[in-house]
Amino acid sequence: MSVLRRSFASVIENKLLIKDKWVSSKASKWFDVKDPATQEVVARVPQCTQSEFDQAVSSAKETFKTWRNVPVLTRLRYMRKYLDLLNANLENLAGIITRENGKVLADSRGDVIRGIEVVEHTLSFGSLLQGESMENLAKDLDTYSYRHPLGVCAGITPFNFPAMIPLWMYPVAAACGNTYVLKPSEKVATTCEKMGELFLEAGFPHGVLNIVHGGKDTVDMICKHPDIKAISFVGGNDAGTYIHQQGSHYGKRVQSNMGAKNHVIVLPDADKEDAINALVSSVFGATGQRCMALSVIVLVGETKSWIPDLVAKSKTLKVGPGNDPKTDVGPLNAAGLKERVESLIASGVSEGAKLLLDGRGVKVNGFEKGNFVGPTIFADVNVNQKIYKEEIFGPVMTIMTVDTLEEAIELINRNPNGNGTSIFTSSGSSARKFQREIEAGQVGINVPIPVPLPMFSFTGNKGSFRGDLNFYGKGAINFFTQWKTITSRWKEENSEKYKLSTAFPTMK
């Protein structure tokens, strides 16, 4: 047997975390989790029952009564222990991600590290959770505001970042004084189970974090349960729109980060080698399964002559299993995703785009059943083609050409999505014009994946985001807290009596 072939002695049965117990579900429906490189079943995820879900919410609700009163600094000491445990278990978590998601180990490590950075940032919440005050607004009158936690919050996470995106959610909510019910993607649930074990090991009170499993049935339970006050979601457009509408209908706060179609502009004055490396990395990293991948390359003017270089660089990437350190492009997460990507490639050919590199039909020795699609490149793409209109979520680069920066900006701004965009240039004035005029929420200048660090917020907009308050950073503080403003009047001793008046009080 090849040293790269993975074999597991037993299939993991993912459990529910309800208060302090890992519970075997009484589910009648289960989801098989398959190793994307081999199709071996490595885990089974239950569709939790309504009763099990209600118990998890009840646990969170009961714990909230005491957790909300735990001092902020005490909460952050728990978070410090959790941070240490996540760092100590980085390699273990990365291995679980590669097994279930399929991404290469280096990218799996990045997944965990970027999540750890959010946990690290929660340690600064002692200042970010401060309120506001002003005295002597009027005679004997003071006003002050506090940030209070919401209560029970819930998160619904996608398959493509099994560690990072959950870590955007429950640690931030808990640091703000909330309790949490987390539903991981049923395609990659074991990562969250391991992170839940570490959460308990860090000493957090039982019930601060609860983990439930399932598909749409569990999503509906989250949207409808009256004790859940807020929902965080990252995933596709259809699910994100549905969750935002349903959650809002049932009176909950919702932040829903959805699909994308990210463009990158390349100007002739860009550093050619740096730009080409960045573009290839952005498009084909994580096998294109990133909502921030720069999948649409907009070449301006003479940079269209760089197309052969983009193709040549992409051909150097090795396709293979994620646990091979030589692999650049791992398998797609599921067989259905492979079929969808290959179908979209076929549509690009039939609709007239020029296929310069075809990644269909890739075979990897020892992993013939893997969900592999190699780097694929189209030129002569236009806005009416399906490969432009849909988020492919696979290793497919689509190239468009325009004559000027103004045309490129107009092209991007016409797209209904607004998750992220970048420009490669050596001109400060061109970069400034781009950053001021572009409508996407996250902007990179000579940066291929413009995901902000956690002291800033993840600020996708337009069709890529529903809700008003963003993930992590100050936006998350606002999302996971509510203001309480107190106006207080204390009359000085022996002062004159107040006169009766039925007029609306003013501050004169």
TrEMBL record:
Q: Which UniProt keywords apply?
A: NAD, Oxidoreductase
SUPFAM superfamilies, alphabetized: ALDH-like (SSF53720)
Q: Which one Pfam family would you cite for this protein?
A: Aldedh
Broad EC category:
oxidoreductase
Q: Name one GO cellular component term.
A: mitochondrion
Q: Name one GO molecular function term.
A: methylmalonate-semialdehyde dehydrogenase (acylating, NAD) activity
**Entry's EC annotation:** 1.2.1.27
**Superkingdom as given in the UniProt entry:** Eukaryota
Tell me which residues make up the Aldehyde dehydrogenase domain: 22-486
| Any one GO biological process | L-valine catabolic process
Q: Which InterPro entries does the annotation name?
A: Ald_DH/histidinol_DH, Ald_DH_C, Ald_DH_CS_CYS, Ald_DH_N, Aldehyde_DH_dom, MeMal-semiAld_DH
Family from the record = Belongs to the aldehyde dehydrogenase family.
PANTHER family for this protein:
MALONATE-SEMIALDEHYDE DEHYDROGENASE, METHYLMALONATE-SEMIALDEHYDE DEHYDROGENASE [ACYLATING], MITOCHONDRIAL
* Full protein name: methylmalonate-semialdehyde dehydrogenase (CoA acylating)
Instruction: Please give the organism.
Output: Blepharisma stoltei
